[in-house]
Amino acid sequence: MRKESKQTAKILYFPNTTSNKKSQACGGVWEWDVQLNLITASAGAFDIFGLEYRKDGYRMYQLLKRIHADDRAYVDKHIKDLTLCKKKETTIKYRVVLPDGTTRVVKTYGKGCYSEEEVLTHIFGISEVVATK
After folding, report:
1. Closest to 5 measured CA to CA, from 57, 50, 53
2. PAS fold-3 domain: from which residue to which, for each copy (predicted)?
3. For 3-132, CATH number?
4. Distance between CA 107 and CA 87 in Å, rounded?
5. Statement: the pTM of the whole predicted model exceeds 0.85
6. Residue 29: its pLDDT value, please?
7. What are the helix (H) ranges across 31-88?
8. Are 125 and 109 in contact (CB under 8 A)?
9. Which whole-number Å values give the CA distances from 132 to 24, 97, 102, 103, 117, in the listed order?
10. Which of 5, 29, 38, 79 is 20 to 30 A from 54 via CA?
11. What's the CA gap between 71 and 64, in Å, rounded?
């Protein structure tokens, strides 16, 4: 992640979470470069999706295919709302299905960054596992 991304991620938080350290203990921070369609993140953020840490990141579709089929439209709607400037930030809960069949309930907070023309360029966020089934 870029230096400014890490600095931004440090100030992100989950409203109603008692401790930012608590949320990072079973999750992590991430950045999505919308133009490149590339997500870079901490090892903990990739681990939520059952993916190995890669410095060069992953494409968005690689993470989206791990989201439970019943939750994909919900997640897509929130991404679209950020893209169309209907929202500047969002907090959502959704399920991630790992290759071994384990299901994780994930809470994600994302904040959009926009160009002067109001075009979404990046989303910075933090995600945490809130339950495992």
Report:
1. 57
2. 39-125
3. 3.30.450.20
4. 17
5. no
6. 96
7. 43-48, 60-64, 72-83
8. yes
9. 16, 10, 7, 6, 41
10. 79
11. 10
The DSSP result for 79-116, as a single string, is HHHHHTTS-SEEEEEEEEE-TTS-EEEEEEEEEEEE-T
Question: Can you tell me which residue has the tokens 């993470």?
Answer: 63
Query: pLDDT tens for residues 38-65?
Result: 999 999 999 999 999 999 999 999 999 9
For residue 70, how many C-alpha atoms fall within 13 Å in the half-sphere facing its CB? 6
The tokens describing 126, both together, are 């933090």
For residues 18 and 96, give the distance between their C-alpha atoms in angstroms, rounded to a whole number.
24
User: What's the one-letter identity of residue 8?
Assistant: T
Q: What residues contact residue 56 under an 8 Å CB cut-off, 6+ apart? A: 38, 40
